[in-house]
Design a protein that fits this description.
With 188 residues, the chain is α+β, with helices and mostly antiparallel strands. The protein has 3 domains: 1-58, no CATH class; 66-92, no CATH class; 99-185, Sandwich (Immunoglobulin-like), CATH 2.60.40.10. The protein has helices at 3-17, 26-36, 47-57, 66-84; strands at 101-108, 115-119, 132-133, 139-146, 149-157, 161-163, 181-185. Strand 3 and strand 4 form a beta hairpin. The longest helix has 19 residues, at 66-84. The chain is elongated. The protein starts with a helix and ends with a strand.
């Protein structure tokens, strides 16, 4: 910063520190104007309540940055959640609606002798959910009651080959490197 810039800044600071002279009659004039305002009844009080109501209901322009708008939206969302009795992250449906729902898993494996459904819902135990071969011989199904939620699963073909469901989203690779899929069971 140059010496000239410092001089300019110092003069501006000095000017800003100088006391401002206000006409002593300003307060009196403002109070007289307020006293002349008409008083509206029906807002729960006298002149002060009427003046407050007019001030609150007067149209205004507000400038807001996108970040400020996002902050206000977050506060309003938290307020709505608090007033509705819910907490963030809590289930949105009552316990009666989170009851088990039957969900059908289907895979086409024409050359398989047996297929099992394994996943989070049965501790990845192939013996707990064997699939049934349908009449055509290549389609295998299993129907499970599941609570609403997100589950990882796979098909175990002939006890040796893991197969992700080709009709469902793939799950992120687990530590075992076996292919698996994800299903989300809704509550409605």
């Amino acid at each position: 910063m140059s010496e000239h810039d410092e001089d300019v800044i110092e003069r501006v600071v000095d000017e800003l520190r100088r006391p401002v002279q206000v006409d002593p009659a300003v307060d009196t004039r403002v109070m007289e104007e307020i006293a002349r305002l008409p008083v509206r009844r029906g807002h729960g009080g006298g002149p002060a309540a009427g003046a407050a109501w007019r001030w609150l209901t007067r149209p205004r322009s507000i400038s807001l940055s996108p970040l400020g708008g996002l902050g206000i939206a977050a506060v309003l969302a938290a307020l709505v959640l608090a007033l509705s009795g819910r907490r963030p992250g809590s289930p949105s449906t009552p316990p009666a609606e989170r009851a088990m729902r039957e969900f059908e898993f289907v895979v086409v494996e024409p050359h398989a002798a047996r297929v099992s459904l394994v996943g989070d819902f049965n501790d990845w135990d192939a013996a707990r959910t064997p699939m049934r071969r349908m009449q055509g011989g290549s389609v295998w199904t299993a129907v499970l009651p599941l609570r609403p939620g997100r589950y990882r699963y796979a098909f175990l073909v002939d006890g040796t080959r893991w197969l992700a469901d080709p009709t469902a989203p793939a799950a992120r690779d687990d530590e075992f490197g076996a292919p698996s899929s994800v299903v989300t069971v809704g509550s409605s």
